[in-house]
Amino acid sequence: MMDTPHPPVPPDLARRAAARGARIDYRRRVTRRIALLTLLAAVTALLAWLAVASPWPQQAPSVIAPPPRLL
């Protein structure tokens, strides 16, 4: 197997592989940046909603119901 001649390789193979790797790296960086910005926007929207809507109870109820009577 090692005695057979090597297959022909295009002379610009290394340059094309480096260019493809650079494109893949660029797409990954852009995707990561978009995901981070989306997460940041979601956290900002959640914090704004929490500040405006106040979904938690503000204070305890002023009237407390009496305990139920036992028979």
Would you give an account of this structure?
With 71 residues, the protein is mainly alpha-helical. The chain has one helix and no strands. It has a domain at 12-52.
Describe the structure using short key phrases.
1 helix, 71 residues, mainly alpha
Shape: elongated
Order of helices and strands: H
Strand content: under 5%
- Helix/strand/pairing class, anyone? mainly alpha
Kindly report the oligomeric state of this protein: single chain
Radius of gyration: 32 Å
- Could you give the count of β-strands? 0
Q: Number of helix segments?
A: 1
What separation lies between the terminal Cα atoms? 95 Å
Mean pLDDT: 89
Low-confidence stretches: none
Helix content: 55-70%
Sheet with the most strands? none
Keywords: Membrane, Transmembrane, Transmembrane helix
Topology readout:
Elements: H1 13-53
In short:
With 71 residues, the chain is an all-alpha fold.
